[in-house]
Amino acid sequence: PSSLNLAVVAGDGIGTEVVEQGLLVLEQALHGTGTTVRTTDFDLGARRWHATGETLTDEDLAAIRVHDAILLGAIGDPGVPSGVLERGLLLKLRFALDHYVNLRPGKLFPGVTSPLAAPGDVDFVVVREGTEGPYVGNGGAIRVGTPHEVANEVSVNTAFGVERVVRDAFARAAARPRRKLTLVHKHNVLVHAGHLWRRTVEAVNAEFPDVTVDYLHVDAATIFLVTNPSRFDVIVTDNLFGDILTDLAAAITGGIGLAASANINPDRTAPSMFEPVHGSAPDIAGQGKADPTATVLSVAMLLDHVGLPDAARAVETAVAADLAERGSAERVRSTAEVGKDLAARVAG
Amino acid sequence: PSSLNLAVVAGDGIGTEVVEQGLLVLEQALHGTGTTVRTTDFDLGARRWHATGETLTDEDLAAIRVHDAILLGAIGDPGVPSGVLERGLLLKLRFALDHYVNLRPGKLFPGVTSPLAAPGDVDFVVVREGTEGPYVGNGGAIRVGTPHEVANEVSVNTAFGVERVVRDAFARAAARPRRKLTLVHKHNVLVHAGHLWRRTVEAVNAEFPDVTVDYLHVDAATIFLVTNPSRFDVIVTDNLFGDILTDLAAAITGGIGLAASANINPDRTAPSMFEPVHGSAPDIAGQGKADPTATVLSVAMLLDHVGLPDAARAVETAVAADLAERGSAERVRSTAEVGKDLAARVAG
Ligand SMILES: CC(C)[C@H](C(=O)O)[C@@H](O)C(=O)O
Ligand SMILES: CC(C)[C@H](C(=O)O)[C@@H](O)C(=O)O
To answer: Measured from the CA of B240, which atom of ligand 2 is nearest?
Structure first.
């Protein structure tokens, strides 16, 4: 592409800090590719909500839609009631833009310390469904605040929704050397949803006979993530289980400061969104302490998505080299210093 | 009590092997207490289902009800369709006998190897709600097997159900030295259920002003379980999150071979049930390879529940001593050998 129209939702707290560095690295990575980036900033998140009471208006959404991709930092501050920005902004974007593939690599880079004593060679990717499951917002409560309150949450799963994400996961597994797909669910308890997932994986496997499939209950999957994470190649799972497993995956591969993610609309009917897994971290915001690496790795995923794999590899290589040398560093760098160093490495 | 009427559901696979050792240690622990145990075996599980198609009949349930407690091994084999025994037997027992407190300690005994490089001093307990949440079996599907299938699962949460388990968790926290309670949920996404849990914890906190409360989203909780598990004292959480967190807790404290659990009816309107967290492990069944320690520790929880805390402590002490010496053992002992050694230690 000759130009990349990027919607930027830096958000709150450390979101603005890490996005600034992500953009710096992005510009550097595009250098010489013939693609130039044009960014539009969207003032969304806690600041906007405090000022106006708005989370994401129809106008915001329409304006975001015309972009090629979205870079998101982090959303939220302790002054906003829980759920307001999550449901009204972050999940609204994922649902409205049909980000049904929430892609989250779990990779332990050389030089990075894992809390595991013997992590082994960890390099998997979680394909988390992004538009269904318990995240649909299909819950409600009666008699709220009384002793007779009942609060329900409904997990909605459709053949349409499960099949498309499972097919995407198979395609990813087929393109990887180990060609292994692990379905994670809890079909012995959530029998209806679980059996839909299981049947779908079995059916789609016929289209990808080279891919080996196995299954783990979500509870067992957390065990393997700490006892034998190298057993995983591609994991496909529902929205909630994916949320849980990817934070755990981040923890064992060096922490959420390094964990990238992509909310992908594979049909390209709307822009995909790239964001670090971490939140706005109000406790360290404004201090230049945040690690921008997760955002920079999300930028690499963005570059892949827009058809610039060489630029994506350059960013990843820069991150890998930076991480490999961190152990021997004399001091902890600031957010801006890490960004500058990564950009310099990308420049070569 | 002068006699303890115990319903024994040894179940399938390694279930029968570990229960045999659990009973051996139980008899030894009761020696000299003035309490004698009378056991009734219940033929429930995969074997029975294959033979008769039955999971748990009304007669079975009525017969179990008249006991003081239940010792359960493990249920299931690969020949039974997923969900049949879980919903029809295990969860049916938990729900019918109102086991609303599912208690699962996460304790790293000295001498036990954790997969974590620096686990620290891990000693917490998870109070998992046992009769509500996504486990209620309130799901369904339409157009099954067609491209238009919709499969729903409903998480049901009531003020009644949440309050009683939260109060139990507070009481446990108040009785522990650190007096700390962590609520784990996902109230930024599951807003209705999550806010019920949150409001309930806030309200019950007023009755336990000495207990410090904090909150973690379930995804963040998995991070802390691998980066800083010693931060936890008592965790209270819903049925599904508790399922996930307790397997992870087991993993970081030496594996499910050591993880005990108690399904408690605190109102004592029905017998409580004690079971290892692990399953029937068909891959190692019948080989004497299973570790009976989780079952023996569940027996200690049983002894506490029936009012024999000294006997419970004796069992725990025996386990702790056994675990402390495992590192220097020359060979791996069989299931029966571990049971015999533990019984000998209890005998003193
Ligand atoms: C902030 C929250 C709604 C979000 C989620 O649960 O998906 C976050 O945890 C994530 O993983 O991106
Ligand atoms: C077997 C299964 C139904 C059960 C559960 O999910 O509760 C098990 O995983 C457990 O934790 O006891």
So the answer is: 6
DSSP helix/strand/coil, A88: helix
What pLDDT was estimated at residue B112?
A: 96
Nearest by CB: A226 against B155, B157, B251: B251
Express each pLDDT in B260-294 by its tens digit. Answer: 999 999 999 999 999 999 999 999 999 999 999 99
Ligand 2 binding pocket (C-beta < 6 A) is A 188-189, 219; B 86, 90-91, 243, 277
CA distance B206 to A73: 38
Write the CB contacts of A39 (distance below 8 Å, at least 6 apart in sequence). Answer: A6, A7, A8, A23
Annotated catalytic, B186? yes
The per-residue DSSP string of A287-328 comes to: TT---THHHHHHHHHHHHHTT-HHHHHHHHHHHHHHHHHHTT
Q: Show Cβ contacts of residue B299 under 8 Å, excluding neighbours closer than 6 positions.
A: B22, B25, B26, B29, B71, B274, B315
**pLDDT per residue as tens digits for the range A326-348:** 988 889 999 999 999 999 999 98
d(CA B179, CA A300): 45
Q: Encode pLDDT of A204-242 as tens digits.
A: 999 999 999 999 999 999 999 999 999 999 999 999 999
Q: State how beta strands B123-129 and A3-11 pair.
A: unpaired
CA distance A156 to B134: 12
Per-residue model confidence (pLDDT) at position B330: 85
Say yes or no: domain B1-101+260-348 is CATH 3.40.50.2300.
Answer: no
**Residue-wise over A181-201: b if at least 16 C-beta within 10 A, else e?**
bbbbbbbbbbbbbbbbbbbbb
Domain covering A1-104+259-348 in this structure, CATH number? 3.40.718.10
Q: List, in order, residues 6 or more apart from A173 with CB less than 8 Å away.
A: A179, A180, A181, A208, A211, A233, A234
Tell whether B116 lies on the interface with A, counting CB pairs under 8 A.
Answer: yes
**HSE of B157 in the Cβ direction (CA atoms, 13 Å)?**
34
Distance CA A42, CA A48 (A): 10
Q: What is the CATH number of domain B114-253?
A: 3.40.718.10
Ligand showing the shortest atom-to-Cα distance for residue A82: 1
Sheet holding A36-41, edge to edge: A36-41, A3-11, A69-74, A272-276, A260-264, A101-107, A123-129, A234-237, A180-185, A212-217
Spatial contact of B60 and B70, defined as CB atoms under 8 Å apart: no
Please write the tens of the pLDDT for every residue from A39-91: 999 999 999 999 999 999 999 999 999 999 999 999 999 999 999 999 999 99
Can you tell me the distance from the alpha carbon of A105 to that of B312, in angstroms, rounded to the nearest whole number?
Answer: 45
Tokens 């290589």, located at residue: A317
Ligand 2: residue whose CA is nearest its atom 6: B243
How many Cβ atoms sit within 10 Å of the Cβ of residue A32? 10
Pairing mode, if any, of strands A101-107 and A260-264? antiparallel
Phi and psi angles of residue A38, each rounded to the nearest 5 degrees, phi first: -120, 120
Q: Is A114-253 in the same CATH topology as A1-104+259-348?
A: yes
CB atoms B134 and A155 under 8 Å: yes
Which residues, at least 6 apart from B83, have a Cβ–Cβ distance to it below 8 Å? A187, A188, A189, A191, A194, A195
Please list, residue by residue across A56-69, b when 16 or more beta carbons sit within 10 angstroms of its beta carbon and e when fewer do. beeebeeebeebbb
| CA angle at A106 for the pair A104 and A109, rounded to the nearest 5° | 130
Residue B257: phi and psi, rounded to 5, are: -65, -15
Strands, E assignment, A84-205: 101-107, 123-129, 133-142, 150-158, 180-185
Q: Is the pLDDT of residue B133 over 90?
A: yes
CA atoms within 13 A on the CB side of A105: 22
Q: What ranges do the domains of chain B cover?
A: 1-101+260-348, 114-253
